[in-house]
Amino acid sequence: MPPAKPHPPTPFTPLDFQLVLLRRMADHNPDLVERARHELGVSVAEMREANRRWQAWTRAPRSRGTAARYRSVLGAPESVTARRVGELACEALRWPVPLWPGLRFEALLGPDGAVWNAWLVRAPGAAAPELRTLEDLVPWSCTVDEVARAFTPARPLEGTAPTRWGLAFTAPDAAGTPRECAAEFTWGLLQRVAVR
């Protein structure tokens, strides 16, 4: 009997990619991730497997470039926009993310085609939350850019992992007292705020 042929690898899908985003957020908001996982109809094991496959793919010796990987998984971008960062001309590629319909996954490509940044941003035309006080800073409600604009001047903080960012800023509490804050973001989405 001839040996069985190996099965071709299962394609990595947009659903798998959403599971990768969720896996990084589980450290900060396991309850929100659990609800999202149920909404997507996947098990904890499926989420772990998607993350394992993504990590293996990104670390493979002959892995595609990051932008090509995003295109392979997410398809053609919904939009490609020219953007300037200082003196450099860049491109912002955006894809819809069904789990967060008001957001888009954005990859910012430098002039050489390398991905400089990849995170969730507000979708064009989608209403952004009103951010006035600490109480408005609810996990998963806003993006890095939205918090930075609402509470200027915000200062970037070093993230604890490649997909994590931080911001230091001053925001009033419910009584109007200014408080020093540090917000943590994963894939550009607010996860938590610590008051100093």
TrEMBL record:
Name of this chain's protein: Uncharacterized protein
